[in-house]
């Protein structure tokens, strides 16, 4: 699996996310309150809405359309209407850059 350079670590504030598009896929990259970085699919599993406008609190992302929430560390759907988990991707940080494994 290739590692893709997604962004700089300072592009994402703590408890926030950025959208990262690669090919025909969209991802969300999160900066957790403890300084770690995580990556999930970038669209809600309920209606394919981009998560980039959603609210990040602690370790959850809330979809901006219908308020479904997911634990972005595991992808677990935590609140309806979403019932399908998000895919998650391995992340590493090197030299101030966030890399994701696709």
From TrEMBL:
CDD domains named among the record's database cross-references: Rieske_RO_ferredoxin (cd03528)
Signal peptide: none
Residues annotated as domain Rieske: 4-100
InterPro entries assigned to the protein according to its UniProt record, in alphabetical order: MocE_2FeS (IPR012747), Rieske_2Fe-2S (IPR017941), Rieske_2Fe-2S_sf (IPR036922)
One Gene Ontology MF term: metal ion binding
Domain of life: Bacteria
Pfam families cross-referenced by the UniProt entry: Rieske (PF00355)
PANTHER family, sorted: 3-PHENYLPROPIONATE_CINNAMIC ACID DIOXYGENASE FERREDOXIN SUBUNIT (PTHR21496:SF23), FERREDOXIN-RELATED (PTHR21496)
NCBIfam families attached to this UniProt entry: MocE_fam_FeS
Protein name per its UniProtKB record: 3-phenylpropionate/trans-cinnamate dioxygenase ferredoxin subunit
């Amino acid at each position: 699996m290739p590692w893709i350079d997604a962004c700089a670590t300072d592009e994402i504030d703590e408890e926030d996310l950025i959208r990262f598009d690669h090919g025909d896929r969209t991802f969300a990259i999160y900066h957790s309150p403890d300084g770690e970085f995580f990556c999930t699919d970038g669209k809600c599993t309920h209606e394919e809405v981009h998560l980039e406008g959603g609210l990040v609190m602690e370790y959850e992302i809330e979809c901006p359309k219908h308020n479904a929430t997911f634990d972005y560390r595991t992808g677990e759907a935590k609140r309806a209407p979403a019932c399908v988990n998000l895919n998650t991707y391995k992340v590493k940080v090197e030299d101030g850059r966030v890399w994701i494994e696709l």
